[in-house]
Each structure stands twice: as C-alpha cells, then as structure tokens.
Amino acid sequence: GQQVQQSPASLVLQEGENAELQCNFSTSLNSMQWFYQRPGGSLVSLFYNPSGTKHSGRLTSTTVIKERRSSLHISSSQTTDSGTYLCALERGGNKVVFGTGTRLQVLP
Amino acid sequence: GGIITQTPKFLIGQEGQKLTLKCQQNFNHDTMYWYRQDSGKGLRLIYYSITENDLQKGDLSEGYDASREKKSSFSLTVTSAQKNEMAVFLCASSINIQDTQYFGPGTRLLVL
C-alpha cells in the first residue's frame, strides 16, 4: 500500500486564503522533505524538515515524527502558489518515498 | 549554486526501442537519483548512486539500466520501451543520501 498519503488530493482557493496540506506516513522515517512543482516544471525543494517547525516567508512546515505526519501551511495564498506540492520521506535503508501530491489552484 | 541538466527534454520512441536519458550536475554532489513520475502515482525511485561507479536499485528498477561513470553524470536506459508509455523522468542529486535533493527539469517520454 501507499506509504505516504497526502491530503487533500486537490484544493482550490481564492487568493488571500490560507491552505493546510497534510502528509501522513505509515512507516518510520529519518526525515521529511516538501517540494513544489509548477505545471510542466521541475521540482523545487521547499523544506528539509526532519522534525519540528520551519518557516520560510509565507510557508510553514511542521513534522511530528512520533505521530507520523507532516504539514505544510501556506498563508495568504497567491495565484503564483498554484501547482503540485509533494512530500517525501527518507527511511532507513537509503530509501526515499514520495506521496502522490496535492494539486493546488489559487484563483484571482 | 549549481544546476542539473537533463537531456533530451522530450523523447519520443518506438515500442521495443532502447532509449537513454542523460543527467549532469555541477553541484559536486555524491549522490544522484532517477525517478519516474506518472500522473496520480507520485514519484517512484528507479535507481540511485551513492558515488561514482555505484548503483543501487530503487522500487522500480525492472526494465531499466543505469550508469554512473563520472561523479557529475548519471544516465538511465529504458531497455525496451512499452507502447503507449508516457511519463516524466526526473534526475536529482544531493550531497549524501540524507540531505536535500535537488531536481532537474525532467525528460518527458512518449512511446508510440
């Protein structure tokens, strides 16, 4: 089964609204990473977040390993935030597993 | 900063054909990866390499070969392309297996 579950699968917001993206995993991990992918574009790393909370501009990532979850919060969303957000976990044994992604669309 | 270059950007092949994708990085990273991205399935790891001449199989290695002759380059070969196959192949690199991965722009494959 899917080891990394992301929710929601898709999300539509009005510009200015906040977004909360969730990543839940069914296996132990060493670290968690969040990526952003613009339609047709390459992946950009947003956060490398093994645990705790990290901030970058309007983005906040929180990873709670013992609860096997990580979240990505986007405040005051903008149309340029539209795209796919992927979480990936790094397990022991040198394995990286990606979630299926959340497709975000921010309307003007 | 550095950059990851993938060639070609688009690849159209015939069923049964052997197809090779190339990836170059100038980060001086030790570890490189090849992922396949299909719609609705996230990214799946095909092969990765911890250092020059090293190869490790990922979850999706069957049907693929890889080669890491130099630290800066990592190539992937589709041994026999499947008809109607359509996917994006992403190359990435990182300092080591537990560090941030940086991705290239991808190669889009279509098999007729």
Strand content of chain B: over 45%
How far apart are the first and last residues' alpha carbons of chain B, in Å?
38 Å
DSSP helix fraction of chain B: under 10%
Beta-strand content estimate of chain A: over 45%
Write down the Rg of chain A.
13 Å
Instruction: Provide the structure class of chain A.
Output: mainly beta
Q: What letter string, H or E per element, gives the SSE order of chain A? A: EEEEEEEEEEE
Largest interface, chains and sizes:
A-B, 22 and 25 residues
How many β strands of chain B by DSSP?
11
- Cα(first) to Cα(last) distance of chain A is 37 Å
What does this protein structure show overall?
The complex is a heterodimer of chains A (about 110) and B (about 110). By secondary structure, chain A is mainly beta. Chain A contains no helices and eleven strands. The termini of chain A are far apart. Chain B contains no helices and eleven strands. Chain B has strands at about 5, 10-15, 20-25, 30-35, 45-50, 55, 65-70, 75-80, 85-95, 100-105, 105-110. Classes of the chains: A mainly beta (about 110), B mainly beta (about 110). Chains A and B meet through strand 4, strand 5, strand 9 and strand 10 of A and strand 5 and strand 10 of B.
